[in-house]
Specification:
By secondary structure, this protein is of the alpha+beta class. Helices cover about 30% and strands about 20% of the residues. It contains eight helices and ten strands. The two termini are about 25 Å apart.
């Protein structure tokens, strides 16, 4: 919602409110990141931007012989992500590890010649030789479809795509990147357990780095982790049959988080339903932001109409 300069809040106050008005500035912050606990937005006013004329989409499939190679390789990728002489806000990417490889995909909002001559060589330096490489210049919409792996159009009715899943997340601060020892433990866990757990994935997506727009937003919000380098999503399909035991799958996902150690924050859009309300508040919000959200909720939703097991004020 960071490109929506105005929001209209459904009748939670004596009259309908446009929360970009100075009087409702703090309420606007709450809606940007905690709306499910605050109220219903009935109108979004977006400030559109011109679409890029082209985007460079790039993908590498890189074999990882063992956890030590994987840990060393990601350490280099992490150094690359912090290297202001090579990377800026035009580059974004994510790493999807498996027990034996990295799938790395990203975009570059510049020309393909610069990507091939400057960015790619530094990114690949010290990494194992890619098993496959795809670098292509695409239109904006084709770039989005290529990243998603399917057409962007969706049916007007009958949409029925869903998963029965369990997910967790980790936000890694830019000031304390993932250590070599933590990475070795993490990739050892994946190599040891990943092949025996069906239908799972891990994504390590870049949030920070030089000139990060995510860490320097145009609008304030309830999302308080504006110092992150990586967001990790750990996701696995959970058996939907009542006869099947879901615990092994949940334990595997928890093990992915545990392998990296404790004390990290979490991404509120990757909700972990096993967290208590108190745990969720601590993971998803800073203490100062959460206290502000509680004070706002007492004014705009004193009866707790907007409730869920991890809602503000629970």
């Amino acid at each position: 919602m960071e490109s929506a300069p105005e929001l209209e809040l459904e009748d939670m106050l004596p009259t309908e409110a446009t929360v970009s008005d100075p009087l409702y500035y703090t309420l606007e912050q709450a809606l940007r990141g905690a709306a499910e606990s605050i109220g219903i937005v009935n109108t979004f006013y977006f400030q559109t931007q011109p679409a890029p004329s082209s985007v460079v989409n790039w993908v590498y499939e890189i074999p990882m012989a063992n956890p030590n190679v994987a840990a060393d390789s990601f350490s280099h990728i992490q150094d690359f992500a912090l290297n202001a002489s090579v990377i800026d806000d035009r580059t974004g990417f994510g790493v999807t590890p498996s027990p034996s490889s990295f799938h790395i995909s990203g975009t570059y909002h510049g020309d393909e010649a610069t990507f091939r001559s400057k960015i790619a060589p530094e990114f690949l330096r010290t990494l194992p030789t890619p098993a496959s490489t795809k670098i292509q210049t695409l239109s904006w919409l084709d770039s989005l479809a290529d990243m998603w792996g399917r057409p962007l159009s969706q049916p007007l009715s009958g949409y029925n795509e869903h998963d029965n899943f369990y997910a967790k997340s980790i936000l890694v601060p830019e000031s304390t990147p993932l250590s070599p020892s933590a990475l070795l433990k993490y990739f050892t866990y994946i190599a040891t357990n990943g092949s025996t757990t069906p239908s799972w994935f891990s994504e390590l997506n870049l949030l920070g780095g030089p000139a990060s727009r995510i860490n320097n937003p145009s609008y304030p919000s309830a999302y308080s982790s504006r110092d992150s380098l990586w967001v990790l999503q750990h996701y696995a399909i959970v058996p939907s049959s009542a006869k099947e035991d879901t615990r092994p799958t949940i334990d595997f996902v928890n093990g992915l988080n545990d392998a990296l150690g404790m004390g990290y924050g979490g991404y509120p859009n990757y909700v972990d339903p096993e967290l208590s309300a108190k745990e969720a508040h601590a993971v998803y919000y800073s203490q100062s932001v959460y206290e502000r959200l509680v004070s706002i909720k007492k004014v705009v939703d004193p009866k707790g109409l907007f409730w869920n097991p991890q809602a503000v004020g629970v």
